[in-house]
Amino acid sequence: MSDVAFLGLGVMGYPMAGHLAKRGHAVTVYNRHPEKAAKWLGDYPGARAASPREAAAGKDFVFACVGADHDLRQVTIGEAGAFAGMRTDAVFVDHTTTSAEVARELFAAAKERGLHFVDAPVSGGQAGAVNGALTIMVGGDEEPVARAEPVAASYARAYRRMGGAGAGQLTKMVNQICIAGLVEGLAEGIHFAKKAGLDPIQVIDVISKGAAQSWQMDNRHKTMAEGKFDFGFAVDWMRKDLGICLDEARRNGAKLPVSALVDQFYAEVQAMGGGRFDTSSLLARLEK
């Protein structure tokens, strides 16, 4: 078992850190709001720290799942950051969805200190985190990536190195690009079925047995048809992720017309007051 730190106890990080503790790892947690760390300690064995640096001191691995690029920089660099407390050769595993640019920046900063940085964004949503069934896309040097795998297996059903620094984040961008188009297609299909006088549940039950099938269809069509959008990944976070995808596309020359369009559709959902709706709420925009 390893001595680890976990930084960030949001809807994803809270259960992920819990799985580490349940597997027998010695877990020290840090959260920007200390009351959340106190609550976690009421549910799981472990310890809490007052800063990322304190949490990371002497640990074998430091895991993080925070909000965005600036949040990740805040918990890694500077006098109170984790890098300042980590021992030589320790591994920092970042599960935040960020830009590939910041992943490469922190990879280089870690190298200068004799540390390892691994970008390891996840897919599977809150349910995947709670059930310990996340998919992890990893970028970084082979040895630390392999070293972290048995520990990350506490909450993962799949863990794969995709290449060097930033490759995990680039793979997560592909994931979000694909989801955006799938959810919009599903929303339009359900909307069309209703307008055509069909029972959308029956329609999806039939077509999900064929080529149209997807995870989104299997897991979201019923709540979408009922107008319930309180399940999983929020619109605000999806727009953050699509913004990362579109920024990267401008750098590498990729054309993302559908992703750009769906991003604007999500902006309309936000304007309707649906920033905390889940991503399937694209249907709400069509039916407003």
Layout of secondary structure:
Layout: E1 3-7, H1 13-22, E2 26-30, H2 34-43, E3 47-48, H3 52-56, E4 61-64, H4 69-76, H5 82-85, E5 91-94, H6 100-112, E6 116-119, E7 122-123, H7 125-131, E8 134-139, H8 142-152, E9 156-163, H9 167-195, H10 200-207, H11 215-225, H12 235-252, H13 257-271, H14 282-287
Parallel strand pairs: 1-2, 1-4, 2-3, 4-5, 5-6, 8-9
Antiparallel strand pairs: 7-8
Helix pairs in contact: 9-11, 9-12, 9-13, 12-13
Compact overview of the structure:
The chain is α/β, with parallel strands linked by helices.
Structure, explained:
The protein is an alpha/beta fold and about 290 residues long. The chain folds into 2 domains: about 5-165, Rossmann fold; about 170-285, N-(1-d-carboxylethyl)-l-norvaline Dehydrogenase, domain 2 (Orthogonal Bundle), CATH 1.10.1040. Helices cover about 55% and strands about 15% of the residues. It is built from 14 helices and 9 strands. It has helices at about 15-20, 35-45, 50-55, 70-75, 80-85, 100-110, 125-130, 140-150, 165-195, 200-205, 215-225, 235-250, 255-270, 280-285, and strands at about 5, 25-30, 45-50, 60-65, 90-95, 115-120, 120-125, 135-140, 155-165. It has a 6-stranded parallel β-sheet with strand order 3-2-1-4-5-6. The chain has a 3-stranded mixed β-sheet with strand order 7-8-9. Helix 1 (about 15-20) links the parallel strand 1 (about 5) and strand 2. Helix 9 (about 165-195) packs across helix 13 (about 255-270). The mean pLDDT is about 95.
